[in-house]
Every structure is written in C-alpha cells, then in structure tokens.
Design a protein that fits this description.
By secondary structure, the protein is an alpha+beta fold. The protein is built from 3 helices and 4 strands; from the N terminus they run H-H-H-E-E-E-E. It has a 4-stranded antiparallel beta sheet. The longest helix has 13 residues.
Length: 150
C-alpha cells in the first residue's frame, strides 16, 4: 500500500495492530478507544476514576498499546514509523507514473517515475522466500524499494 500511487490511509489504531471489537454495542466494527498504556487505568485513554462510566467502552486486551510499542524497536508501531519515513523519502510513489513490471512467482513489481527520478518496488506476496531475479532475494512477505541510477 505504501508503494502505490496516492496517499496511503490507515485506520485508527492500525499502526498498533488494534482490531475491531464487534462485541461492543453500537460500534459496528469501529475501533475502541486508543490504547496508550497497559499499566494505567482505562489503558491510559482516560484519567477518570475506576468505576466511572466512560462514554465509550475500553478494550479488555491492552497488549496493542503505544507505550509498550514505543519501547520495543521491533514493534509494529516502530516498523510503521520507519515505513512512513521511507515513503516520505520516495515522493515518486505518491506523485509518479506507475508502470507494472514483469515478475515471476507471487511477486508484485512496479516502478514509479516522477520529476526525472525513478523508484522500483518489488514485493513478495507469498509465504516462502523468493528470488524474482539473480540479484534480488526476498523473505516471505518481504519487499525492496530500489532507486536505479540513470
């Protein structure tokens, strides 16, 4: 999604791995309140005293929370922050002209050209290692963004 044209969009809490809670009455697959902490009351969402009636129910599972994930370099939140920084360094993805490239196996390969610059994205969509060519090796669900020199 981050290497495709246009603006990538995330749903609230997706950067943490939050899921919809369809058991919350009236939520209709909307996210529950943001989980800021696993150690604070109400998952850090509110400073209301225990037993207070909050206007929205809070999740019982607070494992996907901001505080813990900020401290973990391998967390989904930190991975998403690195991905967003990479995307910002490649304006060709958002503004450029997309061309699909031929690739073998469960691979999506494309290039984006913009303002005299090119970025090539190669994505392994499968759950096994793959080598789309002799020089590029990809882990399961791995990707490479390459900037060829003209």
């Amino acid at each position: 999604m981050f290497s495709l044209p246009g603006t990538p969009t995330l749903f609230y809490g997706e950067e943490l791995g939050m899921r919809e809670n369809l058991d919350i009455p009236g939520r209709r697959s909307a996210r529950s309140p943001m989980q800021w902490s696993s150690s604070e009351p109400h998952a850090g969402f509110s400073t209301a005293p225990e037993g207070a009636r909050l206007c929205r129910p809070l999740p019982e599972d607070t494992s996907a929370n901001v505080t813990d994930q900020r401290r973990d370099p391998s967390s989904l939140l930190n991975w998403m922050e690195r991905l967003i920084r990479q995307r910002k360094e490649c304006p060709e993805f958002g503004w450029g002209e997309l061309s699909l490239l031929h690739a073998k196996g469960p691979v999506l390969a494309h290039r984006c050209d913009w303002d005299g610059s090119t970025v090539v994205a190669v994505h392994n969509l499968g759950d096994n290692d793959c080598a789309p060519d002799e020089e590029i090796k990809l882990d399961p669900y791995g990707y490479r963004w390459l900037r060829p020199r003209h």
